[in-house]
């Protein structure tokens, strides 16, 4: 039996006094600072490790949860981690959403932690359509098991609005989310394979994939993505292969059908920017943090400080934090618009292109 403990995150950013804040976010009016990238007003509870049984595969799905501790029923975001990464890597993002009034569940896929293994490239090449299906099934199994999850973890009882479910993902996790939203893969079955789950109402895809034989994606793969989607990438968002350029990532948006599709391109953002961590390939910055490793407290990773000015953050670090603040703010606005039907969220989303260093395209 997996041992479970619950704690409350002590968020570093200043909060408004809890005694003066409402018990639940007003659906019609958002706090003025809601889309600044700063943490929200709700304290965040954490279930570090939970489990739900997927009877369809006879498999246990591990997950972690961050949730608002204040009373109320909140929309659910299920977030899929990148290949070989872990759910802990994205705690800065998930805790932010939770502080703003969302329950966030992050499953541990079967490739979790493989980035730390010596044969990570071999592990990546060995991924097959069966792995794609298992990743999507991990998320559908969580949706299937929401009642059981609430029974097993009473602190979640009544907190999850089962009718308002969004899915987010980064990199391989974006691919996973995209499949759940209706994207088809080709090369295995005639007419393509669908993994769509109609219970998913909105997607946030960070560093998504364009057409690629590696992923079984063709130009036709994106035609059935008909739910609202926010596609996010950066001008320096490159992948493992030379062909995986920022322009390639835009293709997912361009090939999707019109209607509630949004593309955000962040100036200077790299692949690791969506984790809030530094990319070790940045030139001229001797103090960088490696992206997407499992342990955010790994003492072998140098802190992002400027050695010429001890105690001060490097210029590269400030840029990464700035980009990450934009990512948090815009993704929150999107989920507010489509899971909460929040007018302020839609207005903020529509105005995202006026933010410095942000390109916005919608269709």
Please work out how many helical segments DSSP would assign. Answer: 8
Order of helices and strands: EEEEHEHHHEHEEEEHEHHE
Q: How far is the first residue's CA from the last residue's CA?
A: 48 Å
Helix content: 10-25%
Q: Give the beta-strand count.
A: 12
Reconstruct the topology from this structure.
Elements: E1 7-9, E2 44-54, E3 59-68, E4 74-80, H1 91-99, E5 103-107, H2 120-125, H3 129-144, H4 146-152, E6 160-170, H5 172-180, E7 184-185, E8 193-194, E9 202-206, E10 229-236, H6 246-255, E11 261-270, H7 315-339, H8 343-350, E12 358-362
Parallel strand pairs: 4-5, 4-6, 6-9, 9-10, 10-11
Antiparallel strand pairs: 1-2, 2-3, 3-5, 7-8, 11-12
Helix pairs in contact: 3-5, 7-8
In a nutshell, what does this entry contain?
By secondary structure, this protein is of the alpha/beta class.
Describe what you observe in this structure.
With 363 residues, this protein is of the alpha/beta class. The protein is built from eight helices and twelve strands. The chain has helices spanning 91-99, 120-125, 129-144, 146-152, 172-180, 246-255, 315-339, 343-350; strands at residues 7-9, 44-54, 59-68, 74-80, 103-107, 160-170, 184-185, 193-194, 202-206, 229-236, 261-270, 358-362. The strands form two sheets. Strands 1-2-3-5-4-6-9-10-11-12 form a ten-stranded mixed beta sheet, with helices on both faces. Strands 7-8 form a two-stranded antiparallel ribbon.
